[in-house]
């Protein structure tokens, strides 16, 4: 009997947006540096002086990093993991013995109780030894069962699951489905109430850690019925429950040791006590979890940047061309400068965002999203530049280099491994839209009803009056500011150091310009603003550069006052800010001078078949089969490849 086509919920674009809007946090109860930045205000008081961890937290974190470094050097063979496409069981068991599964779990549950800052440092360290292990630990703690339980779990759930997760049990997060990515309104996996349990059916795709997981956090749709609000809901599910089948372990261009699979649920009974939060709160739980969970990806990007810098330095000092080391040829030297300066800035963004998350004084939802977006994009560029610096050797595998007697440098591997970060936990395109929505939140709060087609004229009139009052006060503040005063931010120009105050004045002026540009765009496009994704993406990218400039300057001043590397830190910050300002100006120019409209016409032509003649002269090596696999609910017809670590 052939499988029946999966019945996806039918939703319009507007309905899908309403689901996403209902899931996001509606209010801003705490200040946000990045939110203020998009409104044209450079609130340096929110990030300077740079917040610092309590001494006891730092001591505990440093002690664990010392142990982890020894383990990485002595027990992790990254080349073996790459060759065998598998993390050896003994390595995972060693990680468990170290307590690394519980880095972010409170001490009272058997965890290490590390801060976000030191958790990120640990991920950067272990990710440099093996990106696959970094991904395993990140998926387990940043988006897996521990984090949503920590925020939303009951005392009974925490007591039952967190001790296991801290020491022995690996967790995975299951949201994506074969035909559902960043549009959860179409989620098809169901959890039907049945007495004191729910019966779960559906198929989940790209379940990182799913192949080896012991506990799962699963997002499923509860049908609305008497006594049940229904909606997308989060559950903790035992991975060995009857009816769960891991049908495939997926293979990728990078992260070859990643235990990522396809998981089928057929009539799986999940105790009602395992539901996290109320029915219908699943997406809000997922998004709230990701507010800080996203910081794990830029942590590993920082580690990658540090490694790229090390290899670029060592290689470029010994490789000679035309009588001198290649590093001293400007074409190569500019790449090394970019890697060094960008690594400094990424670490500044990461540490600042993480420390703010630890202090919990600020709302960091935009900062964390910017860190993920900026880190994933810039790390890929740095890795690509390293491959170019290494030349043919950059394209050659580490095993091949070793086989002919040269140092086994996995430059091509890091480029492959980093590429997924632009897709993981919200693709760059989705991150642009998510951040843009938060960036224009203040505007939508006062003027949203004006452009909402479902609102009556009375609501539009009231919104118009509110908007007039808001903009009458706000717009004049965007004309002048500290960025036009020569002595502003003078503490960032100490004697004998590069002048970082000039970069902060630039950031302040640019923040106001960014806010004005957003207002002009809303005035011009109104209800069509949400379709201008190219424009919104550039707005967000400008904000990311300005955030990075601010963080780099604050970090340089911190290092000047607390370490012996102040002068060098100022030099790196100065180099980064100058490079960033060039990119920022280009983005500002492209806000209004671009090919967005023409691109749209070309796309319509491509999809209508107008340009199929351009595809002639090739053969397509792709295999047969549907673009998206059938995922109809029902019993599994495949072998279970789930393999818990023993």
TrEMBL record:
Please report the stretch or stretches of sequence annotated as the Acyl-CoA oxidase/dehydrogenase middle domain.
172-268
Report the residue ranges that make up the Acyl-CoA dehydrogenase/oxidase N-terminal domain in this protein: 62-167
Q: What is the lineage of its organism?
A: Bacteria, Bacillati, Actinomycetota, Actinomycetes, Kitasatosporales
* Domain Acyl-CoA dehydrogenase/oxidase C-terminal: from-to ranges: 280-438
Protein name, as recorded: Acyl-CoA dehydrogenase
Q: Provide the cofactor list for this protein.
A: FAD
Keyword Disulfide bond on entry: no
The record's annotation in InterPro entries points to:
Acyl-CoA_dehydrogenase (IPR050741), Acyl-CoA_Oxase/DH_mid-dom (IPR006091), Acyl-CoA_Oxase/DH_mid-dom_sf (IPR046373), AcylCo_DH-like_C (IPR036250), AcylCo_DH/oxidase_C (IPR009075), AcylCoA_DH/ox_N (IPR013786), AcylCoA_DH/ox_N_sf (IPR037069), AcylCoA_DH/oxidase_NM_dom_sf (IPR009100)
- CC per GO annotation: cytoplasm
Residue ranges under compositional bias (Basic and acidic residues)?
11-25
- Give the originating organism: Streptomyces agglomeratus
């Amino acid at each position: 009997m052939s499988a029946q086509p999966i019945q996806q919920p039918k939703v319009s674009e507007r309905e899908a947006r309403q689901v996403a809007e209902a899931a996001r946090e509606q209010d801003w109860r705490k200040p946000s540096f990045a939110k203020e930045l998009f409104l044209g205000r450079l609130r340096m008081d929110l990030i300077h002086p740079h917040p610092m961890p309590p001494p006891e937290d730092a001591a505990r974190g440093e002690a664990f990093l010392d142990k982890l470094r020894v383990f990485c050097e002595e027990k992790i063979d990254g080349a073996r993991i790459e060759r065998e496409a598998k993390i050896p069981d003994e390595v995972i068991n060693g990680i468990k013995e170290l307590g690394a599964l519980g880095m972010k779990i409170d001490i009272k549950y058997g965890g290490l109780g590390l801060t976000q800052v030191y958790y990120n440092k640990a991920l950067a360290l272990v990710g440099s030894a093996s990106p696959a292990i970094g991904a395993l630990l990140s998926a387990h703690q940043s988006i897996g069962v521990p984090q949503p339980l920590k925020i939303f779990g009951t005392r009974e759930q925490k007591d039952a699951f967190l001790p296991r997760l801290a020491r022995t049990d690996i967790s995975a997060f299951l949201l994506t489905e074969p035909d559902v990515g960043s549009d959860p309104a179409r989620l098809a996996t169901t959890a039907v109430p049945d007495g004191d349990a729910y019966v779960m059916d559906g198929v989940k795709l790209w379940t990182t850690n799913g192949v080896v997981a012991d506990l799962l956090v699963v997002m499923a749709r509860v049908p609305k019925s008497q006594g049940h609000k229904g909606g997308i809901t989060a559950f903790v599910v035992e991975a060995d429950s009857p009816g769960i089948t891991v049908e495939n372990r997926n293979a990728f261009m990078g992260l070859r040791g990643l235990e990522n699979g396809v998981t089928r649920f057929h009539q799986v009974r999940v105790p009602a006590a395992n539901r996290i939060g109320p029915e219908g709160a699943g997406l809000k739980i997922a998004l709230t979890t990701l507010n800080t969970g996203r910081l794990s990806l830029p942590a590993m990007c920082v580690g990658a940047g540090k490694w790229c810098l090390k290899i670029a330095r060592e290689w470029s000092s010994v490789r000679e061309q035309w009588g001198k080391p290649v590093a001293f040829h400007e074409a190569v030297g500019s790449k090394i400068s970019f890697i060094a300066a960008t690594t400094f800035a990424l670490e500044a963004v990461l540490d600042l965002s993480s420390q703010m998350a630890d202090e919990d004084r600020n709302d960091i939802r935009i900062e964390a999203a910017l860190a993920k977006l900026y880190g994933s994009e810039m790390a890929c560029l740095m890795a690509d530049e390293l491959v170019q610096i290494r030349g043919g050797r950059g394209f050659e595998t580490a095993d091949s280099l070793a086989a002919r007697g040269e140092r086994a440098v996995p430059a091509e591997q890091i480029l492959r491994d980093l590429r997924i970060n632009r897709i993981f936990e919200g693709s760059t395109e989705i991150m642009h839209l998510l951040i843009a929505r938060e960036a224009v939140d203040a505007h939508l709060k006062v003027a949203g009803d004006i452009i909402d087609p479902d609102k009556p004229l009375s609501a539009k009139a009231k919104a118009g009056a509110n908007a007039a009052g808001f903009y009458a006060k706000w717009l004049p503040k965007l004309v002048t500011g500290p960025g036009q005063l020569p002595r502003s931010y003078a503490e960032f120009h100490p004697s004998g150091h590069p002048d970082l105050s000039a970069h902060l004045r630039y950031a302040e002026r640019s923040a106001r310009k960014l806010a004005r540009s957003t207002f002009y765009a809303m005035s011009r496009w109104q209800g069509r603003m949400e379709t201008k994704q190219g424009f919104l993406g550039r707005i967000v990218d400008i904000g990311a550069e300005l955030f990075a400039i601010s963080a780099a300057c604050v970090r340089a001043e911190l290092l000047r006052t607390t370490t012996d590397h102040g002068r060098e830190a100022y030099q790196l910050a100065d180099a980064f800010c100058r490079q960033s300002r060039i990119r920022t100006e280009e983005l500002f120019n492209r806000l209004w001078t671009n090919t967005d409209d023409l691109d749209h016409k070309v796309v319509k032509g491509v999809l209508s078949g107008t340009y199929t003649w351009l595809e002639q002269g090739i053969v397509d090596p792709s295999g047969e089969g549907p673009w998206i696999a059938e995922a109809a609910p029902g019993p599994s017809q495949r072998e279970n490849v789930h393999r818990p670590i023993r």
